[in-house]
Amino acid sequence: MESGEKVGGIKLARIIKRLTELEIEEGGPYSFEPQNGMASADVGLNLAVAIFLRMQNVDLPKLDAFLNDQFKKPTESLVGILGEEIINELISKYKNISRCTEGQDPIKKSIIYDQDEQRIMDAIRKCFDKRFASFSSKLQDRAKASIEKTIRSNRDKQMSLMAHYTKMALGEAGKTVSDELIAEIGLANIFFWTAFIIYDDFWDQDPAADPRLLPIANIFARHYTDFYINLSEDKEFRPFFHDLMDKLDAANAWEVENCRAKVEGDIFYIPQNLPDFGDYEKKYRPASGHILASVAVFTKIDRDLKPEDWGNIVSYFKHYLIAMQLNDDAHDWEEDLRRGHLSTVVTLLLSDLKKNGWEKPTIDFATDLPELRKIFWFNTMPQYVKIVLSQAAASREALRTISIIENPEPLERIVSTTENVARLAEKESQDSDALLKEYANT
User: Fold this and answer.
1) CA 313 to CA 311: how far, in whole Å?
2) CA 206, CA 202: separation in Å to the nearest integer?
3) pTM of the model
4) Which residues touch 198 (CB under 8 Å, ≥6 apart)?
5) Counting beta carbons within 10 angstroms of the beta carbon of residue 8, is it exposed (0 to 12), middle (13 to 18) or buried (19 or more)?
6) Running DSSP on this structure, what letter comes out for residue 178?
7) Alpha-helix runs per DSSP H in 107-266
8) pLDDT, tens digit, 9 for 90 and up, residues 126-147
9) Residue 239 main-chain phi, psi, to 5 deg
10) Is beta strand 267-269 parallel, antiparallel or unpaired with respect to 362-364?
11) What is the tens place of the pLDDT at every residue in 163-189?
Protein backbone atom coordinates (compact mmCIF):
# COMPACT_ATOMS: atom_id res chain seq x y z
CA MET A 1 0.00 0.00 0.00
CA GLU A 2 3.00 2.34 0.08
CA SER A 3 2.48 3.14 -3.61
CA GLY A 4 -1.07 4.29 -3.04
CA GLU A 5 -2.29 2.08 -5.87
CA LYS A 6 -5.88 0.96 -5.97
CA VAL A 7 -7.04 -2.60 -5.36
CA GLY A 8 -9.69 -4.06 -7.63
CA GLY A 9 -11.54 -7.18 -8.68
CA ILE A 10 -11.61 -10.25 -6.49
CA LYS A 11 -9.19 -8.79 -3.91
CA LEU A 12 -11.37 -5.75 -3.36
CA ALA A 13 -14.49 -7.92 -3.16
CA ARG A 14 -12.94 -10.00 -0.38
CA ILE A 15 -11.85 -6.91 1.53
CA ILE A 16 -15.32 -5.35 1.25
CA LYS A 17 -16.92 -8.54 2.49
CA ARG A 18 -14.55 -8.73 5.48
CA LEU A 19 -15.05 -5.06 6.35
CA THR A 20 -18.81 -5.58 6.28
CA GLU A 21 -18.41 -8.35 8.83
CA LEU A 22 -16.40 -6.02 11.11
CA GLU A 23 -18.82 -3.07 11.00
CA ILE A 24 -20.30 -1.89 14.28
CA GLU A 25 -22.56 0.36 12.24
CA GLU A 26 -22.93 0.72 8.48
CA GLY A 27 -20.03 2.89 7.34
CA GLY A 28 -17.95 2.31 10.48
CA PRO A 29 -16.37 2.29 12.86
CA TYR A 30 -15.01 -1.26 12.88
CA SER A 31 -14.25 -3.85 15.52
CA PHE A 32 -12.95 -7.41 15.70
CA GLU A 33 -15.98 -7.97 17.99
CA PRO A 34 -18.67 -5.75 16.41
CA GLN A 35 -21.44 -7.34 18.44
CA ASN A 36 -19.99 -5.66 21.56
CA GLY A 37 -20.70 -2.18 20.20
CA MET A 38 -18.68 1.04 20.26
CA ALA A 39 -16.72 0.07 23.35
CA SER A 40 -14.92 -2.61 21.33
CA ALA A 41 -13.91 -0.30 18.46
CA ASP A 42 -10.13 -0.64 18.10
CA VAL A 43 -8.44 2.63 17.12
CA GLY A 44 -5.55 0.89 15.36
CA LEU A 45 -7.89 -1.23 13.24
CA ASN A 46 -9.99 1.79 12.29
CA LEU A 47 -6.92 3.86 11.48
CA ALA A 48 -5.60 1.12 9.17
CA VAL A 49 -9.01 0.77 7.49
CA ALA A 50 -9.27 4.53 7.02
CA ILE A 51 -5.81 4.76 5.40
CA PHE A 52 -6.64 1.88 3.04
CA LEU A 53 -10.01 3.36 2.08
CA ARG A 54 -8.48 6.79 1.50
CA MET A 55 -6.05 5.20 -0.93
CA GLN A 56 -9.07 3.81 -2.79
CA ASN A 57 -10.63 7.31 -2.82
CA VAL A 58 -13.39 6.13 -0.46
CA ASP A 59 -14.65 8.52 2.22
CA LEU A 60 -16.68 7.25 5.21
CA PRO A 61 -17.92 10.18 7.36
CA LYS A 62 -18.76 7.98 10.36
CA LEU A 63 -15.29 6.46 10.35
CA ASP A 64 -13.69 9.89 10.04
CA ALA A 65 -15.80 11.23 12.92
CA PHE A 66 -14.79 8.31 15.13
CA LEU A 67 -11.07 8.74 14.41
CA ASN A 68 -11.08 12.51 14.75
CA ASP A 69 -12.70 12.10 18.15
CA GLN A 70 -10.08 9.54 19.16
CA PHE A 71 -7.20 11.77 18.06
CA LYS A 72 -8.29 14.34 20.65
CA LYS A 73 -7.64 11.78 23.40
CA PRO A 74 -4.91 9.30 22.37
CA THR A 75 -5.65 5.75 23.46
CA GLU A 76 -3.12 4.66 26.06
CA SER A 77 -3.32 0.98 25.13
CA LEU A 78 -2.66 1.70 21.48
CA VAL A 79 0.30 3.95 22.30
CA GLY A 80 1.63 1.25 24.58
CA ILE A 81 1.47 -1.37 21.85
CA LEU A 82 2.77 0.63 18.88
CA GLY A 83 4.62 3.51 20.48
CA GLU A 84 3.85 7.22 20.29
CA GLU A 85 6.14 7.81 17.29
CA ILE A 86 4.40 5.20 15.13
CA ILE A 87 0.95 6.43 16.18
CA ASN A 88 1.84 10.00 15.25
CA GLU A 89 3.22 8.81 11.91
CA LEU A 90 0.01 6.89 11.14
CA ILE A 91 -2.17 9.85 12.10
CA SER A 92 -0.05 12.14 9.92
CA LYS A 93 -0.32 9.75 6.99
CA TYR A 94 -4.08 9.47 7.44
CA LYS A 95 -4.49 13.24 7.49
CA ASN A 96 -2.21 13.76 4.48
CA ILE A 97 -4.18 11.25 2.44
CA SER A 98 -7.39 12.88 3.64
CA ARG A 99 -6.27 16.27 2.37
CA CYS A 100 -5.51 14.75 -1.01
CA THR A 101 -9.06 13.46 -1.32
CA GLU A 102 -10.50 16.84 -0.37
CA GLY A 103 -9.39 18.68 -3.51
CA GLN A 104 -5.66 18.29 -3.84
CA ASP A 105 -4.05 15.96 -6.37
CA PRO A 106 -3.29 12.50 -4.96
CA ILE A 107 0.31 11.64 -4.19
CA LYS A 108 1.68 10.02 -7.32
CA LYS A 109 5.01 8.72 -8.48
CA SER A 110 6.79 11.18 -10.74
CA ILE A 111 6.49 10.62 -14.46
CA ILE A 112 9.86 9.45 -15.76
CA TYR A 113 11.19 11.06 -18.95
CA ASP A 114 14.22 9.96 -20.91
CA GLN A 115 16.77 12.56 -22.00
CA ASP A 116 15.07 13.34 -25.33
CA GLU A 117 11.61 13.50 -23.76
CA GLN A 118 12.83 15.83 -21.02
CA ARG A 119 14.41 18.13 -23.60
CA ILE A 120 11.08 18.42 -25.44
CA MET A 121 9.15 18.95 -22.19
CA ASP A 122 11.52 21.77 -21.22
CA ALA A 123 10.99 23.35 -24.63
CA ILE A 124 7.20 23.01 -24.31
CA ARG A 125 7.26 24.87 -20.99
CA LYS A 126 9.39 27.64 -22.54
CA CYS A 127 6.78 27.95 -25.32
CA PHE A 128 4.09 28.26 -22.67
CA ASP A 129 6.00 31.01 -20.83
CA LYS A 130 6.39 32.93 -24.09
CA ARG A 131 2.69 32.55 -24.98
CA PHE A 132 1.48 33.82 -21.60
CA ALA A 133 4.12 36.49 -21.02
CA SER A 134 1.64 39.34 -21.62
CA PHE A 135 -0.96 38.10 -19.11
CA SER A 136 -1.17 38.90 -15.41
CA SER A 137 0.86 36.74 -13.04
CA LYS A 138 -2.34 35.39 -11.48
CA LEU A 139 -3.74 34.25 -14.83
CA GLN A 140 -0.33 32.85 -15.81
CA ASP A 141 -0.21 30.79 -12.62
CA ARG A 142 -3.73 29.48 -13.06
CA ALA A 143 -3.12 28.56 -16.70
CA LYS A 144 0.17 26.87 -15.86
CA ALA A 145 -1.45 24.89 -13.02
CA SER A 146 -4.09 23.70 -15.51
CA ILE A 147 -1.63 22.36 -18.06
CA GLU A 148 0.60 20.84 -15.40
CA LYS A 149 -2.41 18.95 -14.07
CA THR A 150 -3.05 17.61 -17.57
CA ILE A 151 0.59 16.60 -17.92
CA ARG A 152 0.67 14.83 -14.54
CA SER A 153 -2.57 12.96 -15.15
CA ASN A 154 -1.36 11.50 -18.46
CA ARG A 155 0.93 8.71 -17.35
CA ASP A 156 1.77 7.46 -20.86
CA LYS A 157 2.86 11.00 -21.86
CA GLN A 158 1.08 10.95 -25.21
CA MET A 159 -0.84 14.21 -24.68
CA SER A 160 2.45 16.08 -24.33
CA LEU A 161 4.72 14.04 -26.59
CA MET A 162 2.59 12.63 -29.41
CA ALA A 163 4.41 14.81 -31.96
CA HIS A 164 7.76 13.65 -30.55
CA TYR A 165 6.75 9.97 -30.75
CA THR A 166 5.54 10.49 -34.33
CA LYS A 167 8.89 12.03 -35.27
CA MET A 168 10.69 9.02 -33.74
CA ALA A 169 8.43 6.59 -35.61
CA LEU A 170 9.27 8.28 -38.92
CA GLY A 171 12.95 7.51 -38.60
CA GLU A 172 15.07 9.35 -41.17
CA ALA A 173 12.09 11.26 -42.53
CA GLY A 174 11.33 12.63 -39.07
CA LYS A 175 14.76 14.20 -38.69
CA THR A 176 13.72 17.04 -41.00
CA VAL A 177 11.24 18.26 -38.34
CA SER A 178 12.91 20.50 -35.76
CA ASP A 179 12.60 20.01 -32.01
CA GLU A 180 11.36 23.60 -31.78
CA LEU A 181 8.37 22.77 -33.96
CA ILE A 182 7.79 19.52 -32.05
CA ALA A 183 7.61 21.55 -28.83
CA GLU A 184 5.16 24.04 -30.35
CA ILE A 185 2.94 21.18 -31.54
CA GLY A 186 3.24 19.57 -28.09
CA LEU A 187 2.01 22.76 -26.42
CA ALA A 188 -0.91 23.02 -28.86
CA ASN A 189 -1.88 19.43 -28.06
CA ILE A 190 -1.69 20.04 -24.29
CA PHE A 191 -3.87 23.12 -24.82
CA PHE A 192 -6.38 21.03 -26.78
CA TRP A 193 -6.69 18.43 -24.03
CA THR A 194 -6.76 20.94 -21.17
CA ALA A 195 -9.47 23.03 -22.84
CA PHE A 196 -11.44 19.83 -23.54
CA ILE A 197 -11.20 18.77 -19.87
CA ILE A 198 -12.31 22.20 -18.62
CA TYR A 199 -15.26 22.39 -21.02
CA ASP A 200 -16.21 18.78 -20.24
CA ASP A 201 -16.61 19.60 -16.53
CA PHE A 202 -19.24 22.19 -17.46
CA TRP A 203 -21.01 19.95 -19.99
CA ASP A 204 -21.19 17.25 -17.30
CA GLN A 205 -22.38 19.80 -14.68
CA ASP A 206 -19.52 18.62 -12.48
CA PRO A 207 -19.48 20.39 -9.07
CA ALA A 208 -15.72 20.78 -9.59
CA ALA A 209 -16.24 22.98 -12.68
CA ASP A 210 -14.45 26.28 -12.01
CA PRO A 211 -15.73 29.39 -13.86
CA ARG A 212 -12.31 31.00 -13.42
CA LEU A 213 -10.90 28.42 -15.85
CA LEU A 214 -13.31 29.22 -18.71
CA PRO A 215 -11.33 32.23 -20.00
CA ILE A 216 -8.19 30.10 -19.87
CA ALA A 217 -9.88 27.32 -21.83
CA ASN A 218 -10.90 29.91 -24.43
CA ILE A 219 -7.31 31.13 -24.73
CA PHE A 220 -6.11 27.55 -25.14
CA ALA A 221 -8.75 26.80 -27.80
CA ARG A 222 -8.02 29.98 -29.71
CA HIS A 223 -4.29 29.21 -29.59
CA TYR A 224 -4.47 25.68 -30.99
CA THR A 225 -6.99 26.77 -33.63
CA ASP A 226 -4.74 29.60 -34.86
CA PHE A 227 -1.67 27.42 -34.61
CA TYR A 228 -2.99 24.51 -36.64
CA ILE A 229 -4.74 26.43 -39.42
CA ASN A 230 -1.61 28.53 -40.01
CA LEU A 231 0.93 25.74 -39.58
CA SER A 232 0.90 23.97 -42.91
CA GLU A 233 1.02 25.10 -46.53
CA ASP A 234 -0.72 21.85 -47.48
CA LYS A 235 -3.99 22.97 -49.08
CA GLU A 236 -5.84 19.97 -47.69
CA PHE A 237 -4.80 20.49 -44.07
CA ARG A 238 -7.02 23.48 -43.25
CA PRO A 239 -10.25 21.84 -44.58
CA PHE A 240 -9.23 18.67 -42.72
CA PHE A 241 -8.86 20.69 -39.48
CA HIS A 242 -12.22 22.43 -39.80
CA ASP A 243 -14.05 19.22 -40.72
CA LEU A 244 -12.47 17.44 -37.74
CA MET A 245 -13.45 20.19 -35.30
CA ASP A 246 -16.99 20.49 -36.71
CA LYS A 247 -17.54 16.77 -36.15
CA LEU A 248 -15.94 17.01 -32.70
CA ASP A 249 -18.39 19.70 -31.58
CA ALA A 250 -21.31 17.85 -33.18
CA ALA A 251 -20.38 14.73 -31.18
CA ASN A 252 -20.23 16.74 -27.95
CA ALA A 253 -23.67 18.21 -28.71
CA TRP A 254 -25.05 14.72 -29.39
CA GLU A 255 -23.67 13.39 -26.11
CA VAL A 256 -25.15 16.21 -24.02
CA GLU A 257 -28.52 15.71 -25.74
CA ASN A 258 -28.68 11.90 -25.71
CA CYS A 259 -26.48 10.61 -22.89
CA ARG A 260 -28.07 12.04 -19.76
CA ALA A 261 -30.56 10.40 -17.38
CA LYS A 262 -32.61 11.72 -14.46
CA VAL A 263 -31.19 11.23 -10.96
CA GLU A 264 -32.87 12.35 -7.74
CA GLY A 265 -30.90 11.61 -4.59
CA ASP A 266 -30.23 7.87 -4.59
CA ILE A 267 -32.76 7.16 -7.35
CA PHE A 268 -31.64 6.70 -10.96
CA TYR A 269 -34.44 6.69 -13.54
CA ILE A 270 -33.73 4.15 -16.29
CA PRO A 271 -34.42 5.78 -19.70
CA GLN A 272 -36.87 4.11 -22.05
CA ASN A 273 -34.38 4.47 -24.89
CA LEU A 274 -30.64 4.09 -24.42
CA PRO A 275 -28.14 5.93 -26.65
CA ASP A 276 -26.94 4.00 -29.69
CA PHE A 277 -23.15 4.22 -29.93
CA GLY A 278 -23.08 2.07 -33.05
CA ASP A 279 -19.46 1.52 -34.09
CA TYR A 280 -18.36 3.93 -31.33
CA GLU A 281 -17.48 6.67 -33.79
CA LYS A 282 -19.13 9.13 -31.40
CA LYS A 283 -16.65 8.14 -28.68
CA TYR A 284 -13.73 8.90 -30.99
CA ARG A 285 -14.94 12.29 -32.14
CA PRO A 286 -14.70 14.29 -28.85
CA ALA A 287 -11.04 13.27 -28.50
CA SER A 288 -10.23 13.37 -32.23
CA GLY A 289 -8.31 16.65 -31.97
CA HIS A 290 -5.49 14.49 -30.60
CA ILE A 291 -4.75 13.35 -34.14
CA LEU A 292 -3.69 16.86 -35.17
CA ALA A 293 -0.29 16.61 -33.46
CA SER A 294 0.75 13.67 -35.62
CA VAL A 295 -0.89 14.93 -38.81
CA ALA A 296 0.98 18.23 -38.37
CA VAL A 297 4.27 16.33 -38.25
CA PHE A 298 3.37 14.31 -41.35
CA THR A 299 2.72 17.51 -43.32
CA LYS A 300 6.21 18.79 -42.46
CA ILE A 301 8.32 15.88 -43.71
CA ASP A 302 10.06 15.86 -47.07
CA ARG A 303 8.42 12.70 -48.37
CA ASP A 304 5.02 12.23 -49.96
CA LEU A 305 2.58 9.85 -48.31
CA LYS A 306 0.46 7.40 -50.26
CA PRO A 307 -3.29 8.21 -50.36
CA GLU A 308 -4.08 5.13 -48.26
CA ASP A 309 -1.61 6.27 -45.58
CA TRP A 310 -3.89 9.11 -44.53
CA GLY A 311 -6.79 6.71 -44.00
CA ASN A 312 -4.57 4.43 -41.93
CA ILE A 313 -3.31 7.36 -39.79
CA VAL A 314 -6.91 8.28 -38.97
CA SER A 315 -7.77 4.62 -38.34
CA TYR A 316 -4.83 4.19 -35.96
CA PHE A 317 -6.00 7.10 -33.82
CA LYS A 318 -9.71 6.39 -34.10
CA HIS A 319 -9.52 2.81 -32.84
CA TYR A 320 -7.11 3.29 -29.96
CA LEU A 321 -8.90 6.46 -28.78
CA ILE A 322 -12.18 4.49 -28.75
CA ALA A 323 -10.44 1.80 -26.67
CA MET A 324 -8.99 4.42 -24.33
CA GLN A 325 -12.41 6.06 -23.84
CA LEU A 326 -14.01 2.68 -23.11
CA ASN A 327 -11.35 1.97 -20.49
CA ASP A 328 -12.15 5.28 -18.82
CA ASP A 329 -15.88 4.53 -18.94
CA ALA A 330 -15.35 1.09 -17.38
CA HIS A 331 -13.28 2.58 -14.58
CA ASP A 332 -15.84 5.31 -13.86
CA TRP A 333 -19.10 3.43 -14.41
CA GLU A 334 -20.41 3.80 -10.84
CA GLU A 335 -19.57 7.51 -10.70
CA ASP A 336 -21.13 8.06 -14.14
CA LEU A 337 -24.27 6.18 -13.12
CA ARG A 338 -24.68 8.26 -9.97
CA ARG A 339 -24.38 11.44 -12.04
CA GLY A 340 -26.84 10.23 -14.67
CA HIS A 341 -24.22 9.98 -17.43
CA LEU A 342 -25.01 7.29 -19.98
CA SER A 343 -21.47 6.37 -20.94
CA THR A 344 -20.69 3.46 -23.24
CA VAL A 345 -20.20 1.07 -20.33
CA VAL A 346 -23.19 2.37 -18.34
CA THR A 347 -25.31 1.84 -21.47
CA LEU A 348 -24.02 -1.73 -21.82
CA LEU A 349 -24.75 -2.31 -18.13
CA LEU A 350 -28.31 -1.00 -18.34
CA SER A 351 -28.93 -3.17 -21.38
CA ASP A 352 -27.58 -6.19 -19.50
CA LEU A 353 -29.76 -5.26 -16.54
CA LYS A 354 -32.89 -5.54 -18.66
CA LYS A 355 -31.70 -8.80 -20.21
CA ASN A 356 -31.30 -10.21 -16.70
CA GLY A 357 -34.98 -9.59 -15.94
CA TRP A 358 -34.82 -6.18 -14.24
CA GLU A 359 -38.37 -4.83 -14.33
CA LYS A 360 -38.18 -1.80 -12.03
CA PRO A 361 -38.09 1.60 -13.80
CA THR A 362 -35.49 2.88 -11.34
CA ILE A 363 -32.27 1.95 -9.57
CA ASP A 364 -31.88 2.70 -5.86
CA PHE A 365 -28.20 3.21 -5.12
CA ALA A 366 -28.81 2.52 -1.43
CA THR A 367 -29.97 -1.05 -2.09
CA ASP A 368 -29.32 -2.06 -5.71
CA LEU A 369 -25.58 -1.53 -6.16
CA PRO A 370 -24.55 -5.10 -5.14
CA GLU A 371 -26.80 -6.51 -7.88
CA LEU A 372 -25.49 -4.01 -10.41
CA ARG A 373 -21.90 -4.86 -9.55
CA LYS A 374 -22.55 -8.56 -10.15
CA ILE A 375 -24.08 -7.84 -13.54
CA PHE A 376 -21.19 -5.54 -14.38
CA TRP A 377 -18.55 -8.18 -13.56
CA PHE A 378 -20.26 -11.18 -15.13
CA ASN A 379 -22.12 -9.68 -18.10
CA THR A 380 -20.87 -6.22 -18.98
CA MET A 381 -17.15 -6.64 -18.27
CA PRO A 382 -16.57 -9.42 -20.86
CA GLN A 383 -18.33 -7.33 -23.54
CA TYR A 384 -16.30 -4.23 -22.74
CA VAL A 385 -13.01 -6.16 -22.78
CA LYS A 386 -13.86 -7.77 -26.12
CA ILE A 387 -14.62 -4.38 -27.69
CA VAL A 388 -11.41 -2.79 -26.36
CA LEU A 389 -9.20 -5.64 -27.55
CA SER A 390 -10.85 -5.55 -30.98
CA GLN A 391 -10.33 -1.78 -31.26
CA ALA A 392 -6.70 -2.10 -30.15
CA ALA A 393 -6.06 -4.80 -32.74
CA ALA A 394 -7.56 -2.61 -35.47
CA SER A 395 -5.42 0.33 -34.37
CA ARG A 396 -2.24 -1.74 -34.40
CA GLU A 397 -3.03 -3.15 -37.85
CA ALA A 398 -3.60 0.36 -39.26
CA LEU A 399 -0.32 1.60 -37.77
CA ARG A 400 1.67 -1.22 -39.32
CA THR A 401 0.30 -0.45 -42.80
CA ILE A 402 1.41 3.22 -42.84
CA SER A 403 4.16 3.07 -45.46
CA ILE A 404 6.24 5.96 -44.12
CA ILE A 405 6.60 4.52 -40.59
CA GLU A 406 10.07 3.04 -40.05
CA ASN A 407 9.86 2.35 -36.30
CA PRO A 408 6.28 1.76 -35.10
CA GLU A 409 7.28 1.01 -31.47
CA PRO A 410 6.83 4.54 -30.03
CA LEU A 411 3.26 4.69 -31.40
CA GLU A 412 2.46 1.02 -30.86
CA ARG A 413 3.42 1.31 -27.18
CA ILE A 414 0.42 3.60 -26.65
CA VAL A 415 -1.89 0.96 -28.15
CA SER A 416 -0.35 -1.73 -25.94
CA THR A 417 -0.83 0.38 -22.82
CA THR A 418 -4.51 0.85 -23.65
CA GLU A 419 -4.86 -2.84 -24.41
CA ASN A 420 -3.18 -3.87 -21.16
CA VAL A 421 -5.72 -1.90 -19.10
CA ALA A 422 -8.50 -4.06 -20.54
CA ARG A 423 -6.48 -7.26 -20.11
CA LEU A 424 -5.95 -6.42 -16.44
CA ALA A 425 -9.70 -5.91 -16.01
CA GLU A 426 -10.29 -9.23 -17.77
CA LYS A 427 -7.85 -10.97 -15.42
CA GLU A 428 -9.59 -9.53 -12.37
CA SER A 429 -12.96 -10.89 -13.52
CA GLN A 430 -11.83 -14.38 -14.56
CA ASP A 431 -12.54 -16.01 -11.20
CA SER A 432 -16.29 -15.45 -11.60
CA ASP A 433 -17.42 -18.16 -9.21
CA ALA A 434 -15.19 -16.90 -6.40
CA LEU A 435 -16.22 -13.31 -7.05
CA LEU A 436 -19.89 -14.25 -6.97
CA LYS A 437 -19.41 -15.91 -3.59
CA GLU A 438 -17.72 -12.77 -2.26
CA TYR A 439 -20.62 -10.57 -3.35
CA ALA A 440 -23.34 -13.03 -2.38
CA ASN A 441 -23.68 -11.82 1.20
CA THR A 442 -22.81 -8.12 0.76
Assistant:
1) 5
2) 6
3) 0.74
4) 146, 209, 210, 213, 214, 216, 217, 220
5) middle
6) -
7) 115-131, 137-153, 158-169, 179-203, 214-229, 237-258
8) 999 999 999 999 999 999 999 9
9) -60, -35
10) antiparallel
11) 999 999 999 999 999 999 999 999 999
